[in-house]
Write a structure and sequence with these properties.
The chain is mostly helical and about 450 residues long. The protein has helices at about 5-40, 45-80, 85-110, 110-115, 120-135, 140-155, 160-180, 190-215, 235-265, 270-305, 310-335, 340-345, 355-370, 370-385, 390-415, 420-450. It starts with 6 loop residues before the first helix and ends in a 10-residue tail after the last helix. The mean pLDDT is about 90. This is Multidrug-efflux transporter.
């Protein structure tokens, strides 16, 4: 088939995916702003942020399954013209997201003993708890906003998601500048200042999304917030059964990276700080793939709602090709400009900076190694979520990341004595296996006709 044949799919995918890529990058940029500014403030504070956000992200990943899972349900329901399911699924996803965020807050409030128990330095653990006791409350806003993002994206209103996220960037930077360093008469709060800035921005973004979702003319027929307090137990169970495996899948992957943070902390504070910078750079590339994978979920969900296997196949081929091109660009960038990329996060006048740049630049080579497989595993997950297949991907993730990736990382880093590079080779191993198994599952299921049957969770 010619490139022209895929033209409509390419245009539709980019129209959906590029704003989602932009919104993911903008959301990531808030974290980058915190990292850069705390990197200027001090190495201990930067290390504390790395370990604190590792715990926050584990909990976020577990809870975000509801908001992500509902995207495929909504897209399929809209394609079928089922307004009731759109309303019920979204509303119960918001319920589950809020309940989850409140239930896990004690883990962040009392995080210092947990961090000490896993071998972190006392000063770093104390600073991390200071951050989490404030930033932890933003989990309600982040998970609620994620669900509304899925709701709007399934209606192909992804541009709004982008603009709302972008609006938070200058606010976060300004608040960080004031509260971390004590500028304009504000108190100098260090890591707590970064936490307050993030909490403020994420709350404002949620309020904007709520307001837009209530106002949007094409969404008024869904009556999303009418009698919002009323439970719908059947749909809550359906969203839970679809979303919880997604959350556990994300925890399996995110936990691999978080565990690498913990193990890097065993090696040293400098290594942990440099590792955090390298991971954040690779996360920026990952956000590109994640936005395309979100578009894949919507496109496959639409095809599932119509029962159109050919359309689903062509949409999947288009998404995969786009993500592969992004991966090639990321590989070249990481190999050609590692010192420059790591140096962006550090104060050139700090005597620690040359050491951190040396460590971080060395890790960027290994980051380049897993770009292709990282792209394919996240796209594979996006395709399967659109097909409402979430349980087996969870099993694949656990096997790939924890039975393969983690033992390889520990064995190479500590048993073989390779150190930081060994940890990153373990990441490569886990992501590669996941990519192979997930893509094989999607294409095998499509060939059998599994994904065009009605398989809503009950």
């Amino acid at each position: 088939m010619s490139i022209a044949y895929y033209g409509p799919h390419l245009r539709a995918t980019l129209a959906l995916g590029l704003p989602l890529v932009g919104s993911h990058l903008a959301r990531m940029a808030i974290g980058v702003t915190d990292t850069v500014m705390l990197g200027w403030y001090g190495v201990e504070e930067l290390a504390a942020l790395v370990i604190a956000t590792s715990l926050f992200q584990i909990l976020f990943f577990l809870g975000m399954g509801f908001g992500i899972g509902v995207m495929g349900l909504i897209a399929a329901a809209i394609a079928r013209g089922d307004e009731v399911i759109v309303r019920r699924s979204t509303r119960m996803a918001l319920w589950l997201s809020g309940i989850f965020a409140l239930l896990v807050m004690p883990l962040m409030w009392f995080s210092e003993p947990l961090l000490l128990a896993i071998g972190q330095e006392p000063a770093v653990a104390a600073l991390a708890q200071d951050y989490l006791r404030l930033a932890g409350w933003s989990l309600v806003a982040v998970l609620g906003g994620l669900t509304l993002n899925s709701y709007l994206a399934a209606m192909e209103r992804t541009q709004v998601v982008l603009w709302v996220t972008l609006a938070g960037l200058p606010v976060n930077a300004a608040l960080n500048w004031m509260l971390i360093f004590g500028n304009l008469g504000a108190p100098e709060l260090g890591v707590r200042g970064a936490a307050i800035a993030s909490l403020t921005v994420q709350t404002l973004q949620l309020l904007l999304l709520i307001g837009y979702s209530a106002w949007l003319p094409m969404a008024r027929k869904y009556d999303l917030f009418q009698r919002f307090w009323r439970p719908d137990w059947a749909e809550l169970r359906a969203v839970f059964r679809l979303g919880m495996p997604i959350g556990l899948t994300l925890v399996a992957e995110g936990g691999l990276f978080a565990a690498s943070n913990v193990m890097m902390g065993w090696i040293g504070t400098r290594e942990l700080a440099a590792h955090g910078i390298a991971l954040q750079i690779t996360s920026l590339a990952f956000m590109l793939h994640l936005g395309i994978a979100n578009a894949a979920t919507i496109r496959v969900g639409q095809a599932k709602g119509r029962g159109d296997a050919v359309w689903m196949r062509d949409a999947a081929i288009t998404v995969t090709a786009i993500s592969l091109l992004i991966a090639v660009f990321a590989i070249l960038t990481f190999i050609l400009f590692p010192h420059f990329l790591v140096g962006l996060y550090l104060d050139a006048s700090d005597p620690e900076t040359p050491v951190l740049i040396g460590i971080g630049a060395g890790l960027m080579f290994y980051a380049a190694l897993f770009q292709l497989t990282d792209a394919m595993q996240v796209v594979g997950l996006g395709l399967l979520r659109g097909a409402h297949d979430t349980r087996m991907p969870m099993v694949i993730a656990v096997i790939s990341y924890w039975l393969i990736g983690m033992p390889v990382a520990y064995g190479l880093a500590f048993v073989a004595g390779i150190g930081p590079a060994g940890l990153w080779l373990g990441l490569v191993a886990g992501l590669t296996l996941a990519a192979i198994l997930l893509m094989q599952r999607f294409w095998t299921g499509l060939a059998r006709g599994d994904w065009t049957r009605d398989t809503r969770p009950v």
